[in-house]
Amino acid sequence: MTEFDILYFAPGLPSHGEKARAAFDDGALAVNGRRVEVALADIGVTLGGFNHDQLFLFWHQEEGRYAISPVDASAQAQLIAAAPPPLSGLLQGARKDVSRGRRRSRFGLGALGLVLLLPLLAIGLMVWKSHDIAGWIAGHISIEQEQKLGEIAFGQATAGMKLREGGMDADAIRDIGARLTRGSNYSYKWYVAEDPAINAFAVPGGYVVVNTGLIQAANSAEEVAGVLAHEVQHVERRHTLKNLVHSLGLRAALALAMGEIGSGMLGDTAARLSELKFSRDLESESDRLGLLALKQAGIAPQGMVSFFDKLRKQDGAAPPALLSTHPASAERMQALQAMINDIGPWPAQPLPYDWKVVKAAEK
Question: What digits encode the pLDDT tens for the residues 19-75?
Fold first, then answer.
Protein backbone atom coordinates (compact mmCIF):
# COMPACT_ATOMS: atom_id res chain seq x y z
CA MET A 1 0.00 0.00 0.00
CA THR A 2 1.63 3.23 -1.21
CA GLU A 3 0.93 6.38 0.81
CA PHE A 4 1.27 9.85 -0.71
CA ASP A 5 1.18 13.41 0.67
CA ILE A 6 -2.01 15.39 0.12
CA LEU A 7 -3.91 18.48 1.13
CA TYR A 8 -7.17 17.40 2.78
CA PHE A 9 -10.30 19.55 2.49
CA ALA A 10 -13.26 18.77 4.70
CA PRO A 11 -16.00 20.51 6.68
CA GLY A 12 -14.43 22.16 9.72
CA LEU A 13 -10.92 22.30 8.25
CA PRO A 14 -9.20 25.52 7.06
CA SER A 15 -10.22 26.63 3.57
CA HIS A 16 -6.64 26.13 2.31
CA GLY A 17 -6.70 22.49 3.43
CA GLU A 18 -4.71 20.45 5.91
CA LYS A 19 -1.64 18.31 5.21
CA ALA A 20 -2.36 14.58 5.41
CA ARG A 21 -1.42 11.17 4.00
CA ALA A 22 -3.64 9.10 1.73
CA ALA A 23 -3.59 5.67 0.13
CA PHE A 24 -5.82 3.17 -1.64
CA ASP A 25 -6.43 0.25 0.72
CA ASP A 26 -8.12 -2.84 -0.72
CA GLY A 27 -10.03 -0.82 -3.35
CA ALA A 28 -11.03 2.01 -1.02
CA LEU A 29 -9.58 5.47 -0.36
CA ALA A 30 -8.01 6.00 3.07
CA VAL A 31 -6.96 9.33 4.59
CA ASN A 32 -4.59 9.30 7.57
CA GLY A 33 -5.14 5.55 7.89
CA ARG A 34 -8.94 5.79 8.01
CA ARG A 35 -11.05 4.48 5.14
CA VAL A 36 -13.37 6.98 3.49
CA GLU A 37 -16.91 5.64 3.64
CA VAL A 38 -17.75 6.37 0.01
CA ALA A 39 -17.71 4.15 -3.08
CA LEU A 40 -15.00 4.81 -5.66
CA ALA A 41 -17.73 5.28 -8.28
CA ASP A 42 -18.96 8.29 -6.28
CA ILE A 43 -15.56 10.00 -6.22
CA GLY A 44 -15.12 12.67 -8.90
CA VAL A 45 -12.00 14.15 -10.49
CA THR A 46 -11.59 17.84 -11.25
CA LEU A 47 -8.92 20.48 -11.78
CA GLY A 48 -8.50 23.64 -9.75
CA GLY A 49 -5.94 26.11 -8.54
CA PHE A 50 -4.88 29.44 -10.02
CA ASN A 51 -4.07 28.01 -13.43
CA HIS A 52 -6.33 24.94 -13.35
CA ASP A 53 -3.23 22.75 -12.86
CA GLN A 54 -4.05 21.26 -9.43
CA LEU A 55 -5.62 17.79 -9.36
CA PHE A 56 -8.50 17.09 -6.95
CA LEU A 57 -10.49 14.03 -5.96
CA PHE A 58 -13.81 15.04 -4.40
CA TRP A 59 -16.89 13.40 -2.91
CA HIS A 60 -19.91 14.30 -0.83
CA GLN A 61 -20.98 12.97 2.54
CA GLU A 62 -23.71 13.98 4.92
CA GLU A 63 -21.48 16.67 6.49
CA GLY A 64 -20.67 18.31 3.15
CA ARG A 65 -18.05 18.29 0.42
CA TYR A 66 -14.70 16.54 0.88
CA ALA A 67 -11.62 16.66 -1.36
CA ILE A 68 -7.96 15.69 -1.51
CA SER A 69 -5.19 17.08 -3.70
CA PRO A 70 -1.62 15.74 -4.09
CA VAL A 71 0.91 18.27 -2.78
CA ASP A 72 3.39 17.97 -5.65
CA ALA A 73 4.19 16.18 -8.92
CA SER A 74 5.68 13.17 -7.10
CA ALA A 75 2.57 12.70 -4.95
CA GLN A 76 0.38 13.14 -8.04
CA ALA A 77 2.28 10.38 -9.85
CA GLN A 78 1.91 8.09 -6.82
CA LEU A 79 -1.82 8.82 -6.64
CA ILE A 80 -2.36 8.00 -10.31
CA ALA A 81 -0.23 4.84 -10.12
CA ALA A 82 -2.07 3.55 -7.05
CA ALA A 83 -5.63 4.45 -8.07
CA PRO A 84 -7.83 1.48 -9.03
CA PRO A 85 -10.32 1.59 -11.95
CA PRO A 86 -12.38 3.58 -12.78
CA LEU A 87 -10.48 6.41 -11.05
CA SER A 88 -7.22 5.60 -12.81
CA GLY A 89 -8.69 6.39 -16.25
CA LEU A 90 -10.23 9.66 -15.04
CA LEU A 91 -6.95 10.71 -13.41
CA GLN A 92 -4.94 9.95 -16.54
CA GLY A 93 -7.27 12.16 -18.60
CA ALA A 94 -7.08 14.96 -16.03
CA ARG A 95 -3.26 14.76 -15.99
CA LYS A 96 -3.21 15.27 -19.76
CA ASP A 97 -5.37 18.38 -19.31
CA VAL A 98 -2.90 19.69 -16.68
CA SER A 99 0.06 19.11 -19.01
CA ARG A 100 -1.65 20.93 -21.86
CA GLY A 101 -2.62 23.79 -19.54
CA ARG A 102 0.94 24.19 -18.25
CA ARG A 103 2.36 24.27 -21.75
CA ARG A 104 -0.14 26.92 -22.75
CA SER A 105 0.54 28.97 -19.64
CA ARG A 106 4.30 28.93 -20.25
CA PHE A 107 3.80 29.96 -23.84
CA GLY A 108 1.41 32.77 -22.82
CA LEU A 109 3.93 34.27 -20.40
CA GLY A 110 6.67 34.18 -23.01
CA ALA A 111 4.45 35.64 -25.69
CA LEU A 112 3.41 38.58 -23.53
CA GLY A 113 7.08 39.32 -22.82
CA LEU A 114 7.76 39.39 -26.54
CA VAL A 115 4.87 41.82 -26.99
CA LEU A 116 6.68 44.26 -24.75
CA LEU A 117 10.15 43.75 -26.23
CA LEU A 118 9.62 42.84 -29.85
CA PRO A 119 6.28 44.19 -31.11
CA LEU A 120 6.66 43.06 -34.70
CA LEU A 121 7.64 39.52 -33.77
CA ALA A 122 4.84 39.43 -31.21
CA ILE A 123 2.25 40.15 -33.91
CA GLY A 124 3.37 37.09 -35.84
CA LEU A 125 3.35 34.94 -32.74
CA MET A 126 -0.09 36.17 -31.73
CA VAL A 127 -1.52 35.20 -35.11
CA TRP A 128 0.12 31.77 -34.85
CA LYS A 129 -0.77 31.04 -31.21
CA SER A 130 -3.59 33.48 -30.56
CA HIS A 131 -5.94 30.96 -28.94
CA ASP A 132 -3.26 29.88 -26.45
CA ILE A 133 -2.62 33.51 -25.47
CA ALA A 134 -6.37 34.11 -25.12
CA GLY A 135 -6.62 31.11 -22.81
CA TRP A 136 -3.83 32.45 -20.63
CA ILE A 137 -5.46 35.89 -20.35
CA ALA A 138 -8.89 34.37 -19.64
CA GLY A 139 -7.32 32.42 -16.79
CA HIS A 140 -6.47 35.72 -15.10
CA ILE A 141 -10.01 37.11 -15.27
CA SER A 142 -11.74 36.71 -11.91
CA ILE A 143 -15.03 34.87 -11.61
CA GLU A 144 -16.57 38.11 -10.29
CA GLN A 145 -15.50 39.97 -13.44
CA GLU A 146 -16.70 37.08 -15.60
CA GLN A 147 -20.09 37.14 -13.90
CA LYS A 148 -20.34 40.90 -14.44
CA LEU A 149 -19.63 40.38 -18.12
CA GLY A 150 -22.04 37.44 -18.22
CA GLU A 151 -24.87 39.51 -16.74
CA ILE A 152 -24.53 42.10 -19.50
CA ALA A 153 -24.07 39.43 -22.17
CA PHE A 154 -27.15 37.57 -20.94
CA GLY A 155 -29.24 40.74 -21.21
CA GLN A 156 -28.11 41.32 -24.79
CA ALA A 157 -28.34 37.68 -25.87
CA THR A 158 -31.92 37.35 -24.59
CA ALA A 159 -33.25 40.77 -25.64
CA GLY A 160 -36.71 40.25 -27.09
CA MET A 161 -36.92 36.64 -25.92
CA LYS A 162 -39.77 35.45 -23.72
CA LEU A 163 -38.04 33.83 -20.76
CA ARG A 164 -39.48 32.16 -17.72
CA GLU A 165 -38.19 30.43 -14.61
CA GLY A 166 -41.47 28.74 -13.64
CA GLY A 167 -43.43 25.78 -14.99
CA MET A 168 -42.95 22.02 -14.89
CA ASP A 169 -40.32 22.09 -17.64
CA ALA A 170 -38.36 24.95 -16.02
CA ASP A 171 -38.46 23.16 -12.66
CA ALA A 172 -37.09 20.00 -14.31
CA ILE A 173 -34.32 21.95 -16.09
CA ARG A 174 -33.31 23.64 -12.84
CA ASP A 175 -33.27 20.34 -10.92
CA ILE A 176 -31.25 18.50 -13.57
CA GLY A 177 -28.86 21.46 -13.78
CA ALA A 178 -28.37 21.48 -10.01
CA ARG A 179 -27.40 17.79 -10.13
CA LEU A 180 -24.80 18.53 -12.82
CA THR A 181 -23.25 21.59 -11.14
CA ARG A 182 -23.01 20.41 -7.56
CA GLY A 183 -19.86 21.90 -5.97
CA SER A 184 -19.29 24.42 -8.79
CA ASN A 185 -17.73 27.84 -8.15
CA TYR A 186 -20.50 29.41 -10.25
CA SER A 187 -24.03 30.27 -9.13
CA TYR A 188 -26.07 29.03 -12.07
CA LYS A 189 -29.35 30.51 -13.24
CA TRP A 190 -31.67 28.44 -15.46
CA TYR A 191 -34.24 29.77 -17.92
CA VAL A 192 -36.69 28.37 -20.46
CA ALA A 193 -37.19 30.44 -23.63
CA GLU A 194 -40.48 30.28 -25.51
CA ASP A 195 -38.80 29.55 -28.84
CA PRO A 196 -39.46 26.60 -31.22
CA ALA A 197 -35.81 26.42 -32.34
CA ILE A 198 -33.99 23.33 -31.06
CA ASN A 199 -31.34 25.18 -29.09
CA ALA A 200 -29.72 25.75 -25.73
CA PHE A 201 -26.86 28.04 -24.82
CA ALA A 202 -24.76 29.09 -21.84
CA VAL A 203 -23.31 32.52 -21.09
CA PRO A 204 -20.13 33.15 -19.05
CA GLY A 205 -20.85 33.33 -15.34
CA GLY A 206 -23.44 30.54 -15.31
CA TYR A 207 -26.53 31.68 -17.25
CA VAL A 208 -28.15 28.78 -19.13
CA VAL A 209 -31.12 29.06 -21.50
CA VAL A 210 -33.05 26.10 -22.94
CA ASN A 211 -35.58 26.63 -25.73
CA THR A 212 -39.01 25.00 -25.61
CA GLY A 213 -38.17 23.58 -29.05
CA LEU A 214 -35.39 21.49 -27.50
CA ILE A 215 -37.64 20.37 -24.67
CA GLN A 216 -40.25 19.21 -27.21
CA ALA A 217 -37.63 17.46 -29.37
CA ALA A 218 -36.25 15.43 -26.46
CA ASN A 219 -37.77 12.04 -25.69
CA SER A 220 -36.45 11.81 -22.14
CA ALA A 221 -35.02 13.82 -19.28
CA GLU A 222 -31.71 12.01 -19.89
CA GLU A 223 -31.48 13.54 -23.38
CA VAL A 224 -31.95 17.02 -21.94
CA ALA A 225 -29.41 16.22 -19.22
CA GLY A 226 -26.88 15.31 -21.93
CA VAL A 227 -27.27 18.72 -23.56
CA LEU A 228 -27.08 20.52 -20.21
CA ALA A 229 -23.98 18.57 -19.17
CA HIS A 230 -22.26 19.67 -22.38
CA GLU A 231 -23.32 23.32 -22.01
CA VAL A 232 -22.27 23.47 -18.35
CA GLN A 233 -18.75 22.38 -19.28
CA HIS A 234 -18.45 25.33 -21.67
CA VAL A 235 -18.97 27.50 -18.58
CA GLU A 236 -16.82 25.46 -16.19
CA ARG A 237 -13.90 25.35 -18.64
CA ARG A 238 -14.47 29.03 -19.60
CA HIS A 239 -14.64 28.21 -23.32
CA THR A 240 -16.91 31.12 -24.22
CA LEU A 241 -14.78 33.50 -22.17
CA LYS A 242 -11.60 32.33 -23.93
CA ASN A 243 -13.20 32.75 -27.36
CA LEU A 244 -14.39 36.19 -26.36
CA VAL A 245 -10.91 37.22 -25.21
CA HIS A 246 -9.52 35.97 -28.51
CA SER A 247 -11.97 38.11 -30.47
CA LEU A 248 -11.28 41.29 -28.46
CA GLY A 249 -7.64 41.83 -29.28
CA LEU A 250 -4.78 42.05 -26.81
CA ARG A 251 -5.31 45.54 -25.41
CA ALA A 252 -9.01 45.16 -24.55
CA ALA A 253 -8.48 41.58 -23.32
CA LEU A 254 -5.74 42.64 -20.90
CA ALA A 255 -7.92 45.51 -19.66
CA LEU A 256 -10.70 43.02 -18.97
CA ALA A 257 -8.29 40.71 -17.13
CA MET A 258 -7.09 43.59 -14.92
CA GLY A 259 -10.62 44.81 -14.21
CA GLU A 260 -10.04 48.16 -15.92
CA ILE A 261 -12.68 47.82 -18.60
CA GLY A 262 -15.58 50.28 -18.49
CA SER A 263 -19.28 49.54 -18.76
CA GLY A 264 -19.38 50.75 -22.35
CA MET A 265 -16.66 48.38 -23.43
CA LEU A 266 -18.33 45.59 -21.45
CA GLY A 267 -21.45 46.13 -23.52
CA ASP A 268 -19.49 46.01 -26.78
CA THR A 269 -17.69 42.92 -25.54
CA ALA A 270 -20.92 41.14 -24.62
CA ALA A 271 -22.36 41.88 -28.05
CA ARG A 272 -19.63 39.73 -29.63
CA LEU A 273 -20.91 36.55 -27.96
CA SER A 274 -23.45 35.85 -30.69
CA GLU A 275 -20.62 35.73 -33.25
CA LEU A 276 -18.52 33.11 -31.44
CA LYS A 277 -18.12 29.45 -32.41
CA PHE A 278 -16.47 26.60 -30.56
CA SER A 279 -13.62 24.67 -32.11
CA ARG A 280 -13.72 20.90 -32.53
CA ASP A 281 -11.25 20.53 -29.65
CA LEU A 282 -13.44 22.57 -27.28
CA GLU A 283 -16.54 20.62 -28.30
CA SER A 284 -14.75 17.33 -27.69
CA GLU A 285 -13.57 18.54 -24.29
CA SER A 286 -17.12 19.53 -23.34
CA ASP A 287 -18.39 16.14 -24.50
CA ARG A 288 -15.81 14.28 -22.41
CA LEU A 289 -16.21 16.40 -19.29
CA GLY A 290 -19.98 16.42 -19.75
CA LEU A 291 -19.96 12.62 -19.64
CA LEU A 292 -17.95 12.74 -16.41
CA ALA A 293 -20.48 15.23 -14.98
CA LEU A 294 -23.29 12.81 -15.86
CA LYS A 295 -21.37 10.04 -14.11
CA GLN A 296 -20.85 12.13 -10.99
CA ALA A 297 -24.57 12.98 -10.96
CA GLY A 298 -25.58 9.33 -11.42
CA ILE A 299 -27.31 10.01 -14.77
CA ALA A 300 -27.16 7.50 -17.63
CA PRO A 301 -24.95 8.78 -20.50
CA GLN A 302 -26.78 7.42 -23.53
CA GLY A 303 -29.15 10.40 -23.65
CA MET A 304 -26.31 12.67 -24.77
CA VAL A 305 -25.50 10.38 -27.69
CA SER A 306 -29.11 9.74 -28.70
CA PHE A 307 -30.10 13.42 -28.73
CA PHE A 308 -27.10 14.63 -30.75
CA ASP A 309 -27.55 11.67 -33.10
CA LYS A 310 -31.23 12.55 -33.48
CA LEU A 311 -30.26 16.02 -34.68
CA ARG A 312 -27.66 14.60 -37.04
CA LYS A 313 -30.20 12.32 -38.71
CA GLN A 314 -32.74 15.05 -39.51
CA ASP A 315 -33.23 14.86 -43.29
CA GLY A 316 -34.07 17.49 -45.85
CA ALA A 317 -33.88 20.51 -43.58
CA ALA A 318 -31.31 23.09 -42.68
CA PRO A 319 -29.35 22.20 -39.52
CA PRO A 320 -31.15 23.35 -36.36
CA ALA A 321 -29.61 26.22 -34.43
CA LEU A 322 -27.95 23.88 -31.97
CA LEU A 323 -25.87 22.39 -34.76
CA SER A 324 -24.49 25.74 -35.86
CA THR A 325 -22.23 25.69 -32.82
CA HIS A 326 -22.46 22.00 -31.90
CA PRO A 327 -21.92 20.04 -35.17
CA ALA A 328 -23.18 16.49 -34.60
CA SER A 329 -21.11 14.53 -37.12
CA ALA A 330 -21.01 10.74 -37.32
CA GLU A 331 -17.42 10.90 -36.07
CA ARG A 332 -18.55 12.83 -33.01
CA MET A 333 -21.20 10.23 -32.20
CA GLN A 334 -18.60 7.48 -32.51
CA ALA A 335 -16.21 9.43 -30.28
CA LEU A 336 -18.92 9.89 -27.64
CA GLN A 337 -19.73 6.18 -27.65
CA ALA A 338 -16.04 5.32 -27.44
CA MET A 339 -15.67 7.62 -24.41
CA ILE A 340 -18.63 5.93 -22.72
CA ASN A 341 -17.10 2.50 -23.39
CA ASP A 342 -13.73 3.68 -22.09
CA ILE A 343 -15.16 5.09 -18.85
CA GLY A 344 -17.17 1.92 -18.32
CA PRO A 345 -20.64 1.45 -16.80
CA TRP A 346 -21.66 3.44 -13.77
CA PRO A 347 -24.67 3.20 -11.45
CA ALA A 348 -27.52 5.38 -12.67
CA GLN A 349 -31.14 5.79 -11.71
CA PRO A 350 -33.77 7.07 -14.20
CA LEU A 351 -34.45 10.75 -13.67
CA PRO A 352 -37.79 11.18 -11.86
CA TYR A 353 -39.70 12.82 -14.72
CA ASP A 354 -42.28 11.53 -17.18
CA TRP A 355 -41.03 13.60 -20.11
CA LYS A 356 -44.29 13.21 -22.03
CA VAL A 357 -46.07 14.82 -19.10
CA VAL A 358 -43.44 17.57 -18.91
CA LYS A 359 -43.84 18.36 -22.61
CA ALA A 360 -47.63 18.32 -22.41
CA ALA A 361 -47.58 20.71 -19.45
CA GLU A 362 -45.31 23.11 -21.36
CA LYS A 363 -47.76 23.58 -24.23
Answer: 999 998 888 899 999 998 888 888 888 876 655 567 888 888 888 888 899 998 888
Residues 208 and 269 in one domain: yes
Per-residue pLDDT at 354 exceeds 80: yes
Candidates 139, 25, 5, 2; CA nearest to 69 is 5
Distance CA 284, CA 226 (A): 14
Q: Within a domain: residue 267? A: yes
Domain containing residue 17: 4-87
Q: Is the pTM of this model over 0.90?
A: no
- Do 68 and 201 fall into the same domain? no
Of 47, 66, 87, which marks where a domain is finished?
A: 87
Whether residue 244 contacts residue 265, with contact meaning beta carbons closer than 8 Å, is answered with no
pLDDT digits (tens, 9 = 90+) for 133-184: 566 666 667 788 788 777 877 887 788 889 999 999 999 999 999 999 999 9
Sheet holding 44-48, edge to edge: 34-35, 28-31, 18-25, 4-9, 64-70, 54-61, 44-48
Please check whether residue 260 lies inside any domain of the structure. Answer: yes
Question: Is-catalytic flag, 37?
Answer: no
Domain boundary among 87, 110, 128: 87
What per-residue confidence (pLDDT) applies to 350? Answer: 93
- Helix ranges (DSSP H) in the chain: 73-82, 87-117, 119-128, 130-138, 143-157, 168-180, 212-217, 221-236, 239-248, 250-257, 263-271, 280-297, 302-312, 321-325, 330-343, 355-362
- Spot the catalytic one: 146, 222, 223, 231: 231
Number of structural domains in the chain: 2
